[in-house]
Amino acid sequence: NARTSWLEQRLAQDAAMPTLRDEVLGGLRRSPKRLSPKFFYDARGSALFEQICDQPEYYLTRAELELLDAHADDIAAALGEDVLLIEYGSGSARKTARLIEAMQGEARYVPVEISATALDQSVDDLRALFPALDVAPICADFTSFQLESHDLPAHARRVVYFPGSTLGNFETADAVALLKQMRRQIGANGAALIGIDLRKDKATIESAYNDAAGVTAAFTLNMLARFNRELQADFELAHFAHRARYNVALGRIETHIVSHRQQRIRVADTFIHFDADEAMLVEYSYKYSPPGFAHLAAQAGLHVQRIWTDAQQRFSVQLLVP
Ligand code: AVI
User: Fold this and answer.
1) pLDDT tens-digit series, residues 1-34
2) Contact, 224 vs 230, CB < 8 A?
3) Cβ 61 under 6 angstroms from ligand 1
4) Which of 18, 56, 93, 315 could cysteine-pair with 122, CB 3.0–4.6 Å?
């Protein structure tokens, strides 16, 4: 079997990536400070994110699963036959099982996931559910991997699957770049199937990012705990707060970590100063109207062929073609 082992894939990736230290210090030295939301997802952060998905206020996951329950057969029919399903950031692949079930387990599935643990687990789970499924996992950062350098099962059509509204965590230019990467990877007869949260009233959106149990706050601040562990930093979590506000004009949740007081923090071999009330940007979660998303897709040369939503029209899954 010529498929490269995950460890080899990972080592090649790591060699090409800037270190955590350099990236984090780069963000902390900017004014205003800002860090990428990708730093949320260590093992604890990923577990907290799974818990967020079960919070009553976080409607996104339930709406998307409800939508798949209602429309999976229709979606599978629109994808066609002999599909190679390439999932970006597959994680636990909870939604994928419903889709593959509708494809009658006949699909060829390529999960692309940076966490080897999550990748292993999801592959085991899916193989248990669908013994005939041809799975070719890729352990990589989905924003920068070369699909063509991997050995792929034979197929008639490529479909990139990107559920969960994760595209909403990318700023416009980066979202367009990622959509262009998808367009290159799927070729002329392929498609992209993308989960996108829809614009709605401010209160509903803000409460999804400020759950009463405080899970989202713990998820946000876990980024600091991660730096304490991995970069020998000395953040006191009690001296920082999670803040998530919906910017109605721009249609996005803006999540910041706010310093309660003036403080000096050691990070690796350096000291970083925080002012009292200083806010460090850690995440955007964009929400789109259907025309707004069509406009974004068009900038990458993609055209919206179908839109499915849940009954309350909170969330959408959109089929894009070149
Ligand atoms: C992964 N992503 C789509 C989530 C979101 O809704 O933006 C991450 C998240 N951040 C806070 N809660 C959930």
Assistant:
1) 445 677 777 676 666 667 899 999 999 999 999 9
2) no
3) no
4) 93
